């Protein structure tokens, strides 16, 4: 029985307001990222759905290193386990 997992995480990314659209476009170019909200003050809500925790931390680092990003922080992280064998059987 092979157990697999999915990591669901949400981030808040604070950027310089004048760079909001550019940073959003760069974030959406990264795999497994979705944007679920933004504010005029330069805050972006990003959701990740990944296979492992390493990808979450790597993505936070990549976003934090984009030009005009002030800070990136993890708000929520959940791990869902499922049996990949039963998925294949259905």
TrEMBL record:
Under the heading InterPro entries, the entry gives:
Chaperone_NapD_NO3_reduct
**Subcellular localization:** Cytoplasm
Example of a GO biological process term: negative regulation of protein transport
| Keywords assigned by UniProt, alphabetized | Chaperone, Cytoplasm
Domain of life according to the entry: Bacteria
Under Gene Ontology molecular function, one entry of this record is: signal sequence binding
Kindly list the GO CC terms recorded for this protein. cytoplasm
Q: Which PANTHER family match?
A: CHAPERONE NAPD (PTHR38603)
Outline what the protein does. Chaperone for NapA, the catalytic subunit of the periplasmic nitrate reductase. It binds directly and specifically to the twin-arginine signal peptide of NapA, preventing premature interaction with the Tat translocase and premature export.
Record family assignment: Belongs to the NapD family.
Instruction: Please give the subunit comment from the record.
Output: Interacts with the cytoplasmic NapA precursor.
- Record-given protein name: Chaperone NapD
Instruction: Name the gene.
Output: napD
């Amino acid at each position: 029985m092979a157990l697999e997992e999915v990591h669901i995480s949400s981030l808040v990314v604070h950027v310089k307001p004048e760079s909001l659209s550019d940073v959003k476009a760069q974030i959406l170019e990264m795999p497994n990222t979705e944007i679920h909200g933004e504010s005029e003050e330069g805050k972006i809500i990003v959701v990740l759905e990944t296979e492992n925790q390493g990808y979450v931390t790597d993505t936070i680092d990549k976003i934090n290193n984009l030009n005009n990003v002030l800070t990136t922080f993890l708000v929520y992280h959940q791990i869902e386990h499922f049996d990949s064998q039963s998925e294949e059987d259905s």
